[in-house]
Amino acid sequence: MALPAQDERTVPAAVLRGLDQRPLDDALTELYALVEQYGYVVVVCSPATPEPVLRRLHTLRSLLESDRVAFFRPELPPLAVAVLARQLRQLASCDLSPGVLASAGRLLTHYLHAGAVLGSVARLDRVPVGLKAHAKSWVPGSQFAVLAHPEPQLVRVGPDATLKGPEFSTWMLVAKGSLQSEWVGGLGTAWNVHGLRETPLPAESPVWWGTGRMTEFCGYLADLSVLYQLVTSVRQTRCHWCGLDVIGDRCVFCSATPPAPEPAASRAALEQRTPV
Question: pTM of whole model > 0.70?
C-alpha cells in the first residue's frame, strides 16, 4: 500500500504490482529499470505479504546479481508498514547515503505505535490473547482494542478503556474496515495527537489481524526535520563488505555483519611475532 505524499518533497512510491502473476521477464525489467534510475532500491513489504510474492522478489534479486536491492520486512501491521515506507520516501529527498536510508527503517520502527479495534480476537495470533478475551470475542457486539507495537496490549473497548501511547506528540492515521468504531477518536485525544487522518484499509490487514471487522490505526512522526534529526543523530559505521555507510550492526543491502573482534590473546601473540 503506497500512501499519498506527506509533502511536496516526498519521493513517489514505485509499487511492484502482481509480482507472482506476471511473467518473470516483465517483473525483472521493471526492477532493473528502478535500479538503473535510482541507483539503489529498498523494497518494503509486510509480514502478511503472500509467500509466492516473497519468493519472486528473491528470485528477481538473484537474477539481477546486485547488492543494490534491499528487502525490508518489519514485524509491523500493514498500515504501520505503509507509514514507515512513506517516512523513508520523505527521507529519500535528504542528503542521506543509500545504506543509511535503508537501515533507518529499523530505527524508525521504534517511534511507531500501531494497533486496531477488532470485532473478534478469535483468530488473532500476532498478539497474546487470553482465554477470557477469546471467550468474550464470541459475544455479539464485543470490540477489542489491540496495540501490536511497540508493546503488545489488549483491552476490551469500553468508556474507560485505553492503550498506553507514545511519550511524544504524533499524528494518527486511521484505516476503517467493516467495523464502525468511534473509540479510536477518543484514543487520539488521550494520546494528544496533532490530528487524525484517514486512509483506505490495506489489503493485507485482514490477514494480519485475523478479521476484516476492524479499524486499524497508527501513531507516527510526520515532520521531516524530526525524522532527519533522529536518523542523523545515530552513529554511522561503514560496512566492511560492501563499503556503504549504515546504521546498526547489519547492512540491509548485503546482509553483512561486523566481523567478530579478534581475541586479545591472538593479537598479543601476533604482535610478538611481528618483526620490528
Answer: yes
